[in-house]
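dumping this here so i dont lose it again. seq + smiles for S-adenosylmethionine
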Amino acid sequence: MTAAVNGCDRVTATDLSPQAAANTALNAHRHGVRDIVSTGCGDMYEPVGTDRYDLIFWNSGARYTELAWPETEGLGRTIADPGYTAHATYLAQARQHLTHNGRLMLGFADSGDRARLNAIARQHRWHILHLETMTFADCQRTSSLLEFLPCPRTPDTDACPACP
Ligand SMILES: C[S@@+](CC[C@H](N)C(=O)[O-])C[C@H]1O[C@@H](n2cnc3c(N)ncnc32)[C@H](O)[C@@H]1O
């Protein structure tokens, strides 16, 4: 919604939760941008097919849980990603959905497991750039806006001067 009301002329908003996708459609109507925003429901990139984007952003439910944690069904996915499988998919498949010079970003709360995120980013050849930290006034928790930059390392050449 932020992108649409600030001038992006085409926005695709997706979510695993049908309720979240329906809520986004209602918000688009409310903010007068329903011609700009299309919504889709499904697992990560599944609703967008082979489409590519100049900017991909996910405000993730950053908490790490074990795969079998029962509270991560339905609404639980808003705050937790079991096994960080969704984060792994987000980073593994992003290149197939970015335009040339397209940008990949993530909103990552302080409750997230940054070491695991770093490992997933490294595995899928992304550097993490910290852009901004936001503090929520009501609870004093923070969330970071991260950007992922392509790492030139390949499976054959494990050397990248910028990698930690
Ligand atoms: C912190 S909430 C963000 C909600 C809203 N988009 C926002 O920015 O305020 C994280 C969202 O990610 C969604 N999500 C979790 N796993 C997903 C997946 N595998 N594919 C698509 N969406 C997923 C959840 O359903 C939840 O709505």
